[in-house]
Amino acid sequence: MSYQLCRWYDPYPRLAFALKLLYLAPGAVQARASRELQRFIEEQWGAPHARKALQEIKATSGGKRWYDEDPETAQTVELLENSPEFLKSRVADTLLEILASDPPQP
């Protein structure tokens, strides 16, 4: 049996791992990471490109993906999906840094 890639981020193992950690993160950490990640994408890609991509994004899944539960997280992941290839590996590293820097909640 062969494994087929089914999610848009499966071809990027480091990004898939980072998004899995984001999925497992508590809501407050997820929200903070989404905000920081969106800022990072806008800085790296350029705010005009990012804003244009956000305007062109259309929800196609009907809100059944894990990141659709929070509008800000959904917007950030959609922006990442539509970003250029060169940015995806940078985002993976940045997201891992963001999640690692968050102190554990008591």
How do the strands and helices of this protein lay out in sequence?
Elements: H1 13-24, H2 27-45, H3 47-56, H4 71-81, H5 85-101
Question: What is the element string, with H for helices and E for strands?
Answer: HHHHH
Largest sheet: number of strands, sense, barrel closure: none
Query: How big is the Rg?
Result: 14 Å
- Mean pLDDT equals 84
Q: Helix proportion of residues, in percent?
A: 55-70%
Summarize the structure.
This protein has 106 residues and is mainly α.
Description:
With 106 residues, the protein is mainly α. It is 65% helix and 0% strand. The mean pLDDT is 84.
Keywords:
106 residues; 65% helix; mainly alpha
